[in-house]
Design goal:
Chain A: It comes from Myripristis murdjan (pinecone soldierfish). Chain A: InterPro entries: Peripherin/rom-1, Peripherin_LEL, Tetraspanin/Peripherin, Tetraspanin_EC2_sf. Chain A: Belongs to the PRPH2/ROM1 family. Chain A: Keywords: Membrane, Transmembrane, Transmembrane helix. The complex is a heterodimer. Chain A is about 60% helix and about 0% strand. By secondary structure, chain A is mainly α. Chain A folds into two domains: about 190 residues, no CATH class; about 80 residues, no CATH class. Chain B is mainly alpha-helical. Chain B has two domains: about 180 residues; about 110 residues, no CATH class. Helices cover about 60% and strands about 0% of the residues of chain B. Chain B is built from eight helices and two strands; from the N terminus they run E-H-H-H-H-H-H-H-E-H. Chains A and B meet through helix 4 of A and helix 5 of B.
């Protein structure tokens, strides 16, 4: 009982071969795009490594780069095969390689699927990394004299300017940390001393934000000090003022940005499935012997269960060979057996 | 005495024609490059048009765009001609067109050179335009409620943040401009009223700058109000503080940005000009060689090719005579109907 059986006439097979040749070339291009997206993602993650806590998310861009390169190679070969497959005589040349090629493509498609799933799975890890990283960056914002943390102020400012965001979830996050270094606080002033004493940890907290939170779309000059105090500024209502500072949190802004990159990656899967049909239908042409008749194409020759069982048997036999003989001889014998079967079917 | 005389065998002529066909197609590509460079420059200038007072510098990208398009057409035609020139019979079809084509290409190549030189000479006009444009932008910074000027604040802020600059020549330019709108000034406060009265024009001037002047490299939070007042901030000396605000003026920053773009474009256009000149020389040689073949009558023999048939001085003199005779045709003295000889 074949899985997903479709009937093909000779004309349809020719058209399918041509379409698949084009699709293979599109796959090569998408493989190149995948590769460059992987490199781009790697660069982007490295740019912001200071804002991400110690999480191992480098495996995703590395996977994408490897998959992209493989896609180019495999689909380039596939394009060549499909080009030759229109002619039944040329197909004979590729017959022996077809089965290993199909197996490789299958595993490759599986890898692409795993890669796509990893991209989606990475999202939650990325969110965690960013939350922790951003809160640490904000905490160490003032430590511009501590080696190893002296660039955090600059990174945070440039991030808020570039991504048009403020704080972790919003601008209020800045009210809960001391972002002005004690070096620049006049501790002889009563005001400063009062503020330092007003909380348990002795931090200088205030309702002000750094200049990088300022919204460039605001019609009035930026209000970054005494934000919650409506009477401190003329014609200013804190509750209704939306344009003064960036309202979005940087965690959300960064997540949106990275998700946008990931979504561009999900397209390759559909292209690779079509190649299977051509390969199986052409094998059947040979089996039936008449190049002009109709033939069937399918995804799997037997049902899933039977195919799994037969494959398991093949692997078991292979395993037996490793114990008894050299593995290479065994694989060669296996291939010969398959070829003999096909030739027998042809006769 | 021909200028640059070279003898060509039949095989060499055919090779020359093939080579020129290839070079002409490469020239079509360089024409496309020229076109896209012009387009890129136009887009770059248009992006910052709000801080430029006049748009006259747009003639440089327009020149490059037209030259690029003309290059594509001329070299496409040239490729076609060279392809057919290998065969003497087909050459007859193009014989009459070839000399005007070469003259046109010569003038076109001259235009490419002019385009390249314009890229280098535009600097002064650009500086003037930027000076006036930035001054106006800073003056209208506060007018976010006036239609037509409401986006100037945003443009200036984004410009200062992107190019890491402040003001026209430096941050002090903001001290001479009222950049806070009266809508946000509390007129009942005596501070405000004193400041407004302190100058002739009644402007609210202060030693403060917008937030976009703040430098991200500063180790301390940005000081943008009372910039010149040392005692207003703890541990702050205005004279020695270098990292607090951006030191560069936006005029200089933009000028450097555009000058570097135009210099690279100018260099590429000069290289394209040299290439076009090479192609033109090749076509001229091919034309003269083929004409000499026709003159000698034997399509298989050797023939000479040259750039000019006689020396430079003689050619100039003969061309001048042609132009004079063209002029003479319309002179009254030769008209037999006036002053008839009786």
């Amino acid at each position: 009982m074949a899985v997903l059986r479709v009937k093909f006439t000779k004309d349809k097979r020719d058209k399918l071969a041509q379409v698949l040749w084009i699709l293979n070339w599109i796959s090569v291009v998408t493989g190149a795009i995948l590769f460059s997206l992987g490199i781009f993602l790697k660069v982007e993650i490295n740019k912001r490594w200071e804002l991400m806590a110690e999480k191992d998310i480098q495996y995703v861009p590395n996977m994408l780069i490897a998959v992209g390169l493989l896609a180019c190679g495999i689909n380039f070969l596939g394009g060549k095969i499909c080009y030759d497959c229109v002619d039944t005589t040329k197909f004979l040349r590729w017959k022996l390689i077809m089965l290993p090629y199909i197996i490789c493509t299958f595993f490759f498609t599986f890898c692409v699927l795993v890669g796509a799933l990893m991209c989606y799975g990475m999202q939650s890890e990325l969110e965690d990394a960013l939350t922790m990283g951003l809160s640490e960056a904000m905490r160490f914002y003032k430590d511009t004299d501590t080696p190893g943390r002296c660039f955090l102020k600059r990174s945070m400012d440039m991030l808020q300017i570039e991504f048009k965001c403020c704080g972790n979830t919003g601008f209020r996050d800045w009210f809960q940390i001391q972002w002005i270094s004690s070096r620049y606080l006049d501790t002889s002033q009563k005001e400063v001393v009062d503020r330092l004493r007003s909380n348990v940890e002795g931090k200088y907290l205030m309702d002000g934000v750094p200049f990088s939170c300022c919204n460039s779309n605001s019609p009035r000059p930026c209000i970054q000090w005494q934000i919650t105090n409506s009477s401190a500024h003329f014609n200013y209502d804190y509750q209704t003022e939306e344009l003064n500072l960036w309202m979005k949190g940087c965690r959300q802004a960064l997540l949106d940005y990275y998700n946008h990159i990931m979504r561009s990656i999900g397209l390759t899967l559909s292209v690779l499935t079509g190649v299977r049909y051509l390969q199986t239908s052409l094998e059947n042409v040979l089996r039936q012997g008449d190049p002009n008749c109709e033939s069937d194409g399918w995804l799997l020759e037997n049902s899933f269960v039977e195919t799994a069982r037969s494959n398991l048997n093949i692997i078991k036999n292979l395993g037996k060979c490793v114990l008894e003989e050299q593995f290479a001889v065994c694989a060669f014998m296996d291939l010969c057996l398959h070829t003999v079967c096909l030739v027998n079917n042809l006769n | 005495m021909a200028v640059g005389k070279v003898t060509f065998t039949k095989a060499e002529r055919e090779k020359l024609a093939q080579l020129l066909w290839l070079l002409n197609w490469i020239s079509v590509l360089t024409g496309v490059i020229l076109f896209s460079l012009g387009l890129f420059l136009r887009v770059e200038i248009q992006k910052r048009q709000e801080v430029m007072s006049d748009q006259e510098i747009l003639y440089v990208p327009h020149m490059l765009i037209t030259t690029g398009l003309v290059a594509c057409c001329i070299n496409f035609l040239g490729g076609k001609i060279c392809y057919e020139c290998t065969d003497t019979s087909k050459f007859l079809r193009w014989k009459l067109v070839l000399l005007p084509y070469i003259v046109c290409t010569f003038f076109f190549t001259f235009c490419v050179l002019v385009g390249a030189l314009m890229c280098y000479s535009i600097r002064n006009q650009l500086e003037e335009s930027l000076f006036l444009g930035l001054r106006n932008a800073m003056r209208y910074y506060k007018d976010t409620d006036t239609p037509g000027r409401c986006f100037l604040k945003r443009t200036v802020d984004l410009l200062q943040m992107q190019f890491q600059c402040c003001g026209n020549a430096g941050y002090r330019d903001w001290f001479h401009v009222q950049w806070i709108s009266n809508r946000y000034l509390d007129m009942t406060s005596s501070d405000v009223r004193d400041r407004l009265r302190s100058n002739v024009e009644g402007k609210y001037l202060m030693d403060g700058v917008p937030f976009s002047c703040c430098s991200t490299l500063s180790p301390r939070p940005c000081i943008q109000q009372q910039v010149t007042n040392n005692s207003a901030h703890y541990n702050y000396r205005h004279q020695t503080e270098q990292l607090n605000l951006w030191r560069r003026g936006c005029r200089q920053a933009l000028l450097d940005h555009y000058t570097s773009i135009m210099r690279s474009i100018g260099l590429i256009v000069l290289l394209i000009w040299l290439f076009e000149l090479l192609v033109l020389t090749g076509v001229r040689y091919l034309q003269t060689a083929m004409e000499n073949v026709l003159r000698l009558g034997n399509p298989d023999c050797e023939s000479d090719g040259w750039i000019l048939e006689n020396s430079l001085a003689e050619t100039a003199r003969s061309n001048f005579n042609i132009i004079k005779n063209l002029g003479k045709c319309y002179q009254v003295d030769d008209d037999p109907n006036i002053n008839p000889v009786s």
